Amino acid sequence: MEENTNQLSLRYGVEDSPKFQESALLGLQNVVTAFGGLVAVPLVIAGMAGSSVEETAYLISAALLVSGIASIIQSKGFGPKTFRVGSGLPIIMGTDFAFIGPAQSVIALGGLPAYFGGIMLGSLLEIFMSYFIKPLMKIFPPVVTGSVITLMGATLMSTAMDWIAGGAGAENYGVPLNLLIAGIVFLLIVILNYYAPDNIARYAILIGMFIGYIICIFLGQVDLGQIVAADWFSLPSFNKIGIDFNWTYALPFLSGYLVTVIESIGVVQTIGQVTETDLEDGQIAAGVRADGFSSFLGPIFGSGAAATFSQNAGLIPLTRNASRKVAIYAGVIMIALSMSPKLATVISVMPLPVLGGAGILMFGTVMASGIQSLGQVNIDTRNLIIIASSVGVGLGIAFRPEITAQLPTFFAGLFSSGISAGTIIAIILNLLLKEKHN
């Protein structure tokens, strides 16, 4: 592909096909970046259900398997136009935190089979809503989408800071050693990304995290015993726990699916912007449909609901690679990891400060993309109110999520995420505040 002299131009577009080795390494970079989010939800769900060590390991493997399949479906796209599933953009999919709240009450009522059944039945709502994306898109003008993209990067910053400090609730939270490790990784990525030749700069995050990982091994920060004890191979299987189909169990998840629709539209639009793709409404609808289809598929293999991952959007402008082939390779790698507990353990024991050093730059890049988008909006009084209110409410809830705890369950679910709350505020104000024409 011919290089553009523009520093921010892409090396590979969505349709381009990097060589095997490059695609595999960039795909691995995506998996390593997303791994914390991929395994966090099944770990929380296992804790809620009081699962054994064996059952917990099974839930994690199932989540990796389904995330890999879902990423391939989302990035490749399948089916005729009307029923197409998958946006065709390089998007990483994984288990979704939006369902943690309702999962607690459902698991308390009927255990994991009720959780799986409720997830499957509730996913039908998202699939149904995907056919109404075109009218929904009329309420997503640039002032709304720019605010959402900015908010998406900004709200992820608290996650990056928790990683830098050693993980929320960790005994060694914020100790200087954690900050030093994260700082080294951050500086390595910045220096490599800016000064290294192109063939090295594209792997800056992977290299920076690898060096940080090695440093942590020498500092005794990595539990090598867990890696040694893990099995090399384990075949995937269909749900071993059971699925209980009951509409009562689906109702608590409906708010989660409404949140997912809102967030998926935002993520697809963000990926569209950073990949320099002119999106059609049908692509966005197919992306939302892939979320719903993957969430329906998940419980069949023992996993929860799937959703688009926003954190990987930051990799695209940093690596200047937008090829969907890379995301498909990432999906294949996740499937392989699901069948190799040892390889999965190598990544899962990575100290969080290493991930945090990379996360601060990646999430900041997403936020910068949103600011760039807002730079093209006429900042009059109306648009200023929309931006300020959306970002203000979104960040406020991201910083103090407990503020929504006393709301009725449905509204608590809708406003539990800073991204969804800010998006809802932006949409409402965009509809209420009519543009003044001189």
UniProtKB/TrEMBL annotation:
Protein localization: Membrane
Membrane topology listed for this record: Multi-pass membrane protein
Transmembrane feature ranges: 31-50, 56-73, 85-108, 114-133, 140-161, 173-196, 203-229, 249-268, 326-344, 350-371, 383-399, 411-433
GO molecular function, a single term: xanthine transmembrane transporter activity
Keyword Membrane listed: yes
InterPro entries in alphabetical order: NCS2, Xan_ur_permease
Keywords, in A-Z order: Membrane, Transmembrane, Transmembrane helix, Transport
Chief localisation class: membrane
Pfam families attached to this UniProt entry: Xan_ur_permease (PF00860)
Gene Ontology annotations for the cellular component aspect, listed alphabetically: plasma membrane
Alphabetical list of PANTHER family matching this protein: PURINE PERMEASE C1399.01C-RELATED
Family the entry assigns: Belongs to the nucleobase:cation symporter-2 (NCS2) (TC 2.A.40) family.
Protein name listed in UniProt: Nucleobase:cation symporter-2 family protein
